[in-house]
Every structure is written in C-alpha cells, then in structure tokens.
Specification:
Rossmann fold; alpha/beta; disordered N terminus; about 250 residues; binds adenosine-5'-triphosphate
C-alpha cells in the first residue's frame, strides 16, 4: 500500500491537536441533543491531557471528533497543521493510520491472533514494517515480552489492555487517544497502562489525550480539561488525585 502524502507532517510549533468552536448536535426538534457547544481546546506536543466530566457531558464525542472517528456539526479539528474537514476519506484513513493511536476501554483485540500479531496488526494492514527497536522498547516497557505468543483469552485484563496500548504505540503515532483506557482495570494494571502513556509523552514526545472518570488516572496527566453539558468549564494544571477530586466536588455545586 502506498503512503498517502498528508500536508503538515512536520507540525513545527503548531499544537499537536486542536478543536476550534466545535459543536455536535444529534437529532432535531424536541429530541435534539447538544453534545458539544462551542468547544475550543488545544493539545501541545508531548503533553498528556485528561478529559473529565459527568456522564453525558460530551467527553467521548469530543475525543471521537478529535480523532477523526466522528465528524462535528460545525467548527474545526486540526491534527498538527492538517485540518480534518479538508481531508478526503482516503486521506482521513491515512492520517488515522499513520499519526493517531487509540486505546479503548474494551481492548478490542482480535481473539484468534497472538499478542504480537495484535500489536503489529495495524502496521500489517498498512503494509508497514515495524521499527523493531521501537517495538522492542514498547513490548519491554509494557512487560509483554513473555506473553507475545499468547492469545487474548490466555491473558489477564491488564495484560490485554497493555497489548492494546502496545498496538496503539507500535506505529509511533504523534498522538494517542484513550477512551477510558483504564476503565476495566485494577489499580496495578491501571498504573502500568498510565505509566506507559506518561512515558510516551515524556520520553517520546507523543501527545496523549484520555477520557477518564478516575481522579487517580487523571493525576498522571499534565492537565485536566473539565467538560459539563457539552462545554469546557475548567482546566487544572499539574493535577493530583486530591486536587482533581476537590475540583470535581466544586464543579458539582456550581
Ligand atoms: N449517537 C447518538 N445519538 C444521539 N445522542 C447521542 C449520541 N451519542 C451521544 N449522544 C448524546 O450526546 C451527549 C454526550 O455524549 P458522550 O457519550 O459524548 O458523553 P460522555 O461524557 O462521554 O458520557 P459517559 O461518561 O457516560 O461516557 C449525551 O447526552 C448523549 O446521550
């Protein structure tokens, strides 16, 4: 498969991703839902951001629009200096494949493939050779070396999520999105997954954006963006589990 040339691969000083005046409306008339109302937010290169907010506040919708999995009703999304609304379907597929990684709450592994085959699947589909050194780094950092020949059913939930993380990181994407990536994990496995996402930002200058309900998970981030009723209502820099919890309580009483 040939690589699709995308404008803006070397993003310079542009944020790694941004949303400008993003709105997303579902339905019409009485049943209309404003999932996003005029959301503008930027994500710097090498920055780890947690998106938090009550159920139904628009977190997943925002993440899916940022990652090109869903389209907004109005406003713009930019990855590097590539505006997603300007892309053809083919270019969008190429951008998602080459520059974006995803980790979902439900792992989404292929049951018939081994851990290693799952990790390299997106690269295989894209016809790309894995960077062996990078792959080794990711596998070792996630403690998966002695699990590579196992199928998902032979792995614990934490191990499966680490495989999903390795799959997201294997192609060295500029930006990694996680939709409640630790939602199904115990605290030890959560710590391992969040640790590798932290390392992706610190050591490899990748941008990480996760949705979470967990103040402890959010404490691994550089910044928390709080959503309520489809709008950004607050930011918190250098969060700890305690400051996040305090802010959540304050926001509930507003
Ligand atoms: N396909 C859809 N059709 C209609 N309404 C939708 C659709 N998807 C989401 N919504 C609505 O949009 C709003 C935002 O949903 P979203 O899933 O982004 O919230 P969330 O903050 O991620 O919630 P949760 O924490 O419960 O996962 C909600 O009111 C939801 O009911």
């Amino acid at each position: 498969m040939t690589d699709i040339a995308l404008p803006g691969r070397s993003a310079g000083s542009a944020p790694a991703a941004s949303a400008k005046a993003l709105t997303k409306t579902y339905g019409t008339g009485d049943t209309q839902v404003h999932a996003l109302r005029d959301v503008s937010v930027e994500f710097e290169r090498g920055e780890f951001t947690a998106i938090m907010g009550p159920s139904g506040s628009g977190k997943s919708t925002l993440m899916h629009c940022l990652a090109g999995l869903d389209s907004a009703t109005s406003g713009t999304v930019t990855i590097g200096d590539t505006e997603l609304t300007n892309l053809t379907d083919k270019q969008m597929t190429g951008l998602r494949r080459d520059r974006i990684g995803f980790v979902f709450q439900s792992f989404n592994l292929v049951p018939t493939l081994t851990a290693l085959e799952n990790i390299t699947l997106p690269l295989d589909i894209a016809g790309r050779e894995p960077d062996q050194q990078w792959l080794d780094t990711v596998v070792d950092r996630l403690g998966l070396r002695d699990r590579l020949d196992h199928r998902p059913s032979e792995l614990s939930g934490g191990q499966q999520q680490r495989v999903a993380c390795a799959r997201a990181l294997a192609g060295r994407p500029d930006i990694v999105f996680g939709d409640e990536p630790t939602g199904n994990l115990d605290s030890r496995s959560s710590g391992e997954v969040l640790g590798i996402l932290r390392a992706a930002a610190d050591e490899f200058d990748q941008t990480v954006v996760i949705v979470t309900h967990d103040p402890r998970a959010a404490s691994f981030a550089d910044r928390v963006v709080f959503l309520a009723d489809g709008a950004v209502i607050d930011h918190l820099a250098n969060p700890t589990a305690e400051t996040v919890l305090d802010r959540m309580k304050q926001l509930e009483t507003v």
